[in-house]
Amino acid sequence: MKYLLTILSVVLLSAFNVPDDGSIHNFKVKSITGGTIDFSKFKGKKILIVNTASKCGYTPQYNALQKLADEYKDKLVVVGFPAGNFNQELSTDSDIQEFCKLNYGVKFPLASKVSVKGEDMAPIYQWLTSKAKNGVLDAEIKWNFNKFLLDENGKMIAYFPSKVTPDSEDILKFVK
């Protein structure tokens, strides 16, 4: 009986922690503009998710991210998640949005500022970084501009650390 209760507990906990079909398409997050980014609207396209920051040495990657979003708009969506975990992000969503538009011409969706690590990690990042939840890989966010690539069905394909640029062949080979 104890064994059965343990199995049942694991199943029930999993149901609350893992999206039904193991897909990112089950997530909705607050947009930097105040609306909602509904990942189910990206079905049929690959998704590149990036934790961003406005005052980081990697911030110029915004240029390559926007170029990638423009060039492959029929088959890829880039979504940025501004995060202040490394003390390199502006304090308000409106400041972040203005900075991104003015300095890098960012038009791809940006989420409201979130935490990408620690006890207050956003649920979508809990899913992205846990093999137990995404079914593919574990990843640790060690800095800004980490990238997660998902397929057209919302399933994890790969993780790329900060130094891998959005226009690198490591990423492009999956997008082309």
In short:
The chain is of the alpha+beta class and 176 residues long. It has helices at 2-17, 61-71, 93-104, 123-129, 131-134, 169-175; strands at 28-30, 36-38, 46-52, 76-82, 147-150, 156-160.
Q: Give the overall average pLDDT.
A: 91
- What is the fold-level CATH name, i.e. the topology? Glutaredoxin
| Helical coverage, percent range | 25-40%
Distance between the termini: 52 Å
- Count of domain modules: 1
How large, in whole angstroms, is the Cα Rg?
17 Å
CATH superfamily label: Glutaredoxin
What is the helix/strand order?
HEEEHEHHHEEH
Number of helices: 6
CATH architecture: 3-Layer(aba) Sandwich
Q: What is the percentage of strand-forming residues?
A: 15-25%
Please state how the strands of the largest beta sheet are arranged side by side: 4-3-5-6
What is the number of strand segments?
A: 6
Shape: globular
What is the CATH domain class? Alpha Beta
Low-confidence runs of at least 5 consecutive residues? 2-19
Main sheet, how many strands, which sense, barrel?
4 strands, mixed
SSE class: alpha+beta
What does this structure look like?
- With 176 residues, this protein is α+β, with helices and mostly antiparallel strands.
- The chain has a single domain (21-175), classed as Glutaredoxin, CATH 3.40.30.10.
- Helix content is 32%, strand content 16%.
- It contains 6 helices and 6 strands; from the N terminus they run H-E-E-E-H-E-H-H-H-E-E-H.
- The protein has helices spanning 2-17, 61-71, 93-104, 123-129, 131-134, 169-175; strands at residues 28-30, 36-38, 46-52, 76-82, 147-150, 156-160.
- The strands form 2 sheets. The protein has a 4-stranded mixed sheet, covered by helices on one side. Strands 1-2 form a two-stranded antiparallel sheet.
- The protein is globular, with a radius of gyration of 17 Å.
- The relative contact order is 0.20.
